[in-house]
Structures are given as C-alpha cells and as structure tokens.
Amino acid sequence: MPVIVQVAVGVITLAIVLLVAFLIPTLRQVRGTTKELEGLIRGLQTELQPALVDLRETLRHLNKISGEVSDGMSKVGGTLDAVQRTGQTIRLATDVIQVALLPRLFTTAAFLKGIKVGAKVFWRMLLKRR
User: Fold this and answer.
1) Average pLDDT, stretch 21-44?
2) Domain-by-domain residue ranges, the chain?
3) What's the farthest any 2 CA atoms get from each other in the chain?
4) pTM exceeding the 0.85 threshold for the entire prediction
C-alpha cells in the first residue's frame, strides 16, 4: 500500500475518532437535557391541569352568560320595537292634531272669543241705554 493511502486512512481514522470523542459528550448532554425537558413537561402538566379544568368551567359559564345576554337582548329588542311603534303612533297623533285640529281649534277659539267680547259689548251698550 502506498504511503499516501496509509496517511489518508490515518487522517480519516483520526477524524472519525475525534468526531466520536466530541459526539459522545454532546449526545450525553442532549440525553440529560431531554430528561430535564420530560420532567419539566410532566411538572407543567401537573400544574396546568387544574387551571385547564377551571378554564373549561369558566368558558362554560361564559357561554351560558352569553346565551342569556343574547336572549335578553332579543327580549329587549322586542320591547324597543314596541316603544318605537308607540313613539311613531304618538308622532302621528301629534301631526294629526297639529295639521287637522289646531287650525280649527284656533278658529273656533277665536270665534268664541269674538262672541264673548261681542256679548260683553252688547250687554254694556244695553245697560248704558237703560
């Protein structure tokens, strides 16, 4: 075997040995880190489990409250519609009074006032002649 091939094989062997020498501690550290992460995940699951139960219960309550609010809003919506219709009826009645009755009422009131004043004047004149 030529010397160059022997040197190349030696360099490759040395590179593999160095790679394995650095890889073994790295793999041990990765293994330890993985165990720590597993312990951390178990601890988080243990601690978060009651919080998740509380969160689910809270969400159920919120959904119930949301449904009740929605029902209440639909009832209030019906009431508001009735109030709106009542307001429209009052506005219509006011418009009718202003357009139809007020001019006639003013005319009638003026006519009656004229009769009253005329009657007073007539009585005064009649009383003065006597």
Assistant:
1) 89
2) 1-101
3) 169
4) no
